[in-house]
Amino acid sequence: MNQTPSPIEWDAFAKAFEGIFERQYYTENGPLVRELEAQLRAHTQAPHVVAVMNEFVAYLMLMDSLPREGDLLVPEQAPAGLQQALHWLPQIQPVVYRQAHDIPGLLNPATCAVVGCSTDWTEEAASRAQTALRAAGGLPLILDCSQEPLRPLVHGNAHICSLHASAALSAMEGAYLAVSDTDWADRMRTMRSSSGAPRALPVKKTVNGRLSEAHAAVALLGLAHCTAP
Amino acid sequence: MSEISKQQPQDLALLGGPRLFDHPKPVSNLPKPDWQRFVGHLKPAFDAGLLGSGALVQKLEARLAEFHSVQHCVAFNSGFWALAAVMRTLRLSDRNEVVMPSLTYRRMADIAGWAGLQPRFCEVDPVRMTNTAEQVAPCVNAQTALIMGVHPIHGLADVNGLTALAQRDGIPLVFDSVESVYETHEGRRIGGFGDAEVFSLGASKLINGFEGGYVTTDNPRHAERLRAILRSPDQTPAAPGFNARLSDVHAVMALAGLEEIDAQIARNRLRYEAYRRGLAGLAGIRLLAFDESSRPGYKNIIAEVMAEWPLSRDRTVEVLNAEMVLARAYYPQPLHTRPMGYPYVPCQLPVTEDMARRYLLLPCGELVSERDIAQICEFLRFVRQHADALQRPLHAPEKETA
């Protein structure tokens, strides 16, 4: 299977890597990761974007830092990264829903958050669900935007987007989180690595969730291609 | 001729003087392979559409297996997730504790937490600076699911003692070998001991893969179980696998670095020799010597801050950091004293806590020249000469070293 992102030309690809070699900055919240996060912030209008290693790690970080434990409402076709992460999160139990408009009727005191696939969620549906989630104590709404990688963060508390080779925006591997809440974003950065966290907030566990400069470079090339006029 | 221009206490950066270096001198290795060698691996794969196919990862796995003289190598996207996979896979499933030293990688306990294991921290041997069979044995009990042997950042683990203990009690033994890529034990390269050994391809390590890690083992069943974890995410997402695959781009970087490793070791040795010359006769700073019989990689430079040194280890780090000498404490906080958001076995480890106050990791790796090292050593002599000026509290109260 050919997974090399076809729109990227060798010259641009090689030039990006030459830059990494010149800087000798390979990972750990490097300049290309910071640039990628800045561009994604601009595209998604999200207050915070955290680039991470892959979709599995992104879900793990997001779910382990939810304000409460309990039932997670998930779509029937849950993203692979979420399914993988749930095996590492015994404090969270998935409860499957069928359609976005079912959400208000499914909320109960055990619910901890809702995950949706963005292509199944119109902004209207997200708005309606978020109203219900606010009434239920401010439960988070998380949309998986792997097929709509630059969808603005309007309704919902977080977007999660795979940058895998199979995703709409490819870094060959990687993911990003767009988050509205500053504390939640800082907890993600604290979990991800020792660099890049403006302040260290308490977290249950850390991970190695770093996106390398190599994959950030590929994502930036892909981003330039998919946003070019 | 003096290597530095500082002459009086006011010249210390901590007291307002100019910094010793304009650019930071890190403790990260950051090896950069030859560009043409890197491109020589990358471009054919790019042209053939193989980036993402796993072909380069397989090539790297074969080369690493050969390098470590083992039957199997399984690559991961980081040492962290390689350790997590090994802990989940090789543990005894009906038990819930992992025995590990507290003076080790700062995320090791978190990895155990992710793997559903409770860390039971053991003491360390004050000479080896890691856990030996003597410290591990009292911690083994009916709940022990796994023993973590850790090669310290300087020297080797108690390979024979831990192996004998693990075999006697029928408990899986995994070595964290991140800092012992190049070393040999009794003439055999590290990689084939215990049930499995785990390595990192992080940029700060001997082989730079941007990010990455790998597991070596001679046990085909262990290797297959680890490979199954990595295969299953795409094939059956609901299976308990997870995406921790190394990417081909990272594999290319590691391949290029691996091919140049002997040259890197030679440069590391020159840096080590420069420290030996520079620190010779400096009372209170004891450079840890490499054991030449283990074919060391000479990567990490560790010094003990002794009682006759006029400053504590932490104040010494503060003084050095102000000069852009990014020395670090080894380790700043033992794991058993850190907050943990998961079950663990509380303990007191006085030897570990004492050692965590005494050692210093000095700048090393490809961004540090022999001249830099001469200046760092000369600066330490200057610090000793003018230590009185640093005794006053500046940012934090001075603490006793020992």
Could you explain how this protein is built, in words?
- Chain A contains eight helices and seven strands; from the N terminus they run ααβαβαβαβαβββαα.
- With 229 residues, chain A is an alpha/beta fold.
- In chain A, α2 (31-44) runs parallel beside α8 (213-227).
- Residues 1-5 of chain A have low confidence and may be disordered.
- Chain B has twelve helices and 13 strands.
- In chain B, a hairpin with a 2-residue loop joins β6 and β7.
- With 402 residues, chain B is an alpha/beta fold.
- Helices cover 35% and strands 13% of the residues of chain B.
- Chain B is globular, with a radius of gyration of 22 Å.
- The longest helix of chain B is centred in the last third of the chain and has 19 residues, at 261-279.
- The interface between A and B is large, with 42 and 49 residues.
List the helices and strands and how they pair.
The complex is a heterodimer of chains A (229) and B (402).
Chain A: H1 10-23, H2 31-44, E1 48-52, H3 55-64, E2 70-75, H4 80-86, E3 92-97, H5 103-106, E4 111-117, H6 123-135, E5 141-144, E6 158-162, E7 175-179, H7 182-192, H8 213-227
Parallel strand pairs in A: 2-3, 2-4, 4-5, 5-6
Antiparallel strand pairs in A: 1-7, 6-7
Helix pairs in contact in A: 1-8, 2-8, 3-4
Chain B: H1 35-47, H2 55-67, E1 72-76, H3 79-90, E2 97-101, H4 108-114, E3 118-122, H5 133-136, E4 144-150, H6 159-169, E5 173-176, E6 184-185, E7 188-189, E8 196-200, E9 213-217, H7 220-235, H8 248-259, H9 261-279, E10 285-287, E11 301-305, H10 313-322, E12 328-329, H11 350-355, E13 359-362, H12 370-385
Parallel strand pairs in B: 2-3, 2-4, 4-5, 5-8
Antiparallel strand pairs in B: 1-9, 6-7, 8-9, 10-11, 11-13, 12-13
Helix pairs in contact in B: 1-8, 2-8, 3-4, 3-7, 9-12
